[in-house]
Amino acid sequence: MNRTERLYALVDELRAVAPRPRTVGWLADRFGVSRRTVQRDLQALMETRVPVRAEAGPHGGWFIDRDTALPPINLTAAEALAVAAALAGAEHTTPFSAAGPAAMRKLAAALGESAAEEVRALTERIHVLPARTASGVLAVVEEAVTRQRVLWIRYADSAGRESEREVEPGGLLTTSGSWYLIGWCRTRRAGRGFRLDRILAAELREEPCPVRTVPSLDHKLAERVRRADTLRSLSRDRAPRAP
């Protein structure tokens, strides 16, 4: 974590627990730096007019005034709980889940105290058992999808047979509790789906690949997406209008 990232993380941490303070020692341990470094960072934040303050005494420390530091947020309590449940229930094998804890802290920081307590209580009641996945595979797949780069994978099918493929990623799909990489398989010369927990190894190539959509790679999926869009459209048309 570089200094800029740490400054943002410091603000997020203080927002998340506001109005309660954090001591310099606690913050130093949290971010793996010295107390002097934390002191310098907090002083820099004050100089840029971030409303961080210090409170003396045995129960004192550094805190932030969330009323002057946060932009307005338009989530209802139910919407905030829905987001919190999704973040808390995301397994470490869920794509882009690595940013979940930071997003959760920001969500709690942006809510009023009552709603934030509801979010904290809910997340304490959600437990996710770890799933088996090859170390580092998920991050490589995420990068390939985001940057639209060719991906080499070693893959095991449902019978355990292994093969090596070069895939042009189109996107990610989840169904029945499993995540799939949907892409153009250069070996099979066709659109294919690869279950993420069956990808044994992955390497990113620097070769750009054509922009492909998931429905264009899977015609059956395209038909299901079309039907779902039609149903959503009909539901909106039938919904009662607000007076």
TrEMBL record:
Helix-turn-helix type domain segment(s): 9-61
Domain WYL: 137-203
Pfam families, per database record: HTH_11, WYL
Protein name: YafY family protein
Lineage: Bacteria, Bacillati, Actinomycetota, Actinomycetes, Streptosporangiales
